[in-house]
DNA sequence: TTCTAGTTTAGAATAATTATAAATAAAGAA
DNA sequence: TTCTTTATTTATAATTATTCTAAACTAGAA
């Protein structure tokens, strides 16, 4: 999800209508690096469209995921799904302390998976998440 | 969780009592390779102890996790937590079709992560999950 | 402008998990 | 063994994230 038009086109192409609510969700997600959950997107959306419903957010996210425009991420110890508008394969860092999710630049580590078969499985995608303490939360390091 | 005594000792060492319910949960988990969720453990437990409560299962699992005797796993598209009594670092394969989780033998792939720092994060653990179709579900391959 | 099918909305329903508080039982001490 | 203390179990209520429902609404084609 790099730009609005790309998403709008894909929606229309698939017979989904473009509503102001959906357009605003798209705006929130395009180039968003924060890996928000539905509730967070709803909070931001509600600030701009007071009468919007949470169900609409879920509905839009589900379609976006189905169309492959966002990825769902889940994190051990966090019971809501986070969404990532960057669907290029990349890994994540999660801070156990402040609960941030951070992208790991693709070139940065572990040359990325490219097999399409493993133990007889036909592989579709791979999720890699590192759990740890982010630079901010490491202050006073020896505490944790 | 390779054997009962190991778990029983650790519980007592930490001041937790050993009840028949807990002992039975341990039995279900020791050497279990199926990555069960609470509900599944409860079903098996109930067959042996009809009056047991689901809350006891959750309570026991939470302590086991806190003591590092099992790991929680979560899977995109599956909203319950699965538990892995094998706490040696290893990766997972998940079948999108039949929802099985399978261990990837450690030697089998991707020499395992050993860094303890990445982008300023102090890393505690890493989760790697491959999503795909297992050998059984691949039959009639071109369907999916 | 009209029409229709898809969408939004509020609220109910569902599912996984945690919290509560009374009844019970483990395990150490007498 | 029995007593005592404190943790545990149980049933049930509460909570949280998400999905469902059905009536009201609207995008977009004709």
Describe this structure in words.
The structure is a homodimer of 144-residue chains. The relative contact order of chain A is 0.13. The first copy, chain A, is of the alpha+beta class. Helix content of chain A is 33%, strand content 25%. In chain A, helix 2 packs across helix 3. In chain A, strand 5 (117-118) and strand 6 form a beta hairpin. A four-stranded mixed sheet of chain A has the order 4-3-6-5. Chain A binds chain B through residues 72-77, 81, 93, 95-96, 102, 104, 108-110, 113, 118-135, 138, 141, and chain B through 72-77, 81, 93, 95-96, 102, 104, 108-110, 113, 118-135, 138, 141. Strand 6 of chain A pairs antiparallel with strand 6 of chain B. Chain B binds a DNA duplex (30 and 30 nucleotides) through helix 4 and strand 2.
């Amino acid at each position: 999800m790099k730009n609005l038009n790309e998403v709008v086109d894909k929606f229309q192409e698939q017979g989904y209508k473009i509503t102001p609510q959906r357009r605003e969700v798209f705006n929130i997600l395009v180039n968003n690096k924060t890996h928000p959950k539905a509730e967070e997107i709803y909070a931001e959306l509600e600030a701009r469209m007071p009468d919007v419903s949470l169900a609409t957010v879920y509905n839009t996210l589900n379609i976006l995921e189905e169309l492959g425009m966002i990825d769902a991420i889940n994190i051990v110890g966090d019971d809501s799904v986070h969404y990532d508008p960057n669907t290029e394969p990349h890994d994540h860092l999660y801070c156990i302390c402040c609960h941030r999710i951070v992208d790991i630049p693709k070139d940065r580590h572990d040359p990325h998976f490219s097999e399409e078969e493993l133990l007889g499985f036909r592989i579709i995608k791979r999720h890699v998440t590192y759990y740890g303490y982010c630079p901010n939360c490491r202050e006073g390091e020896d505490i944790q």
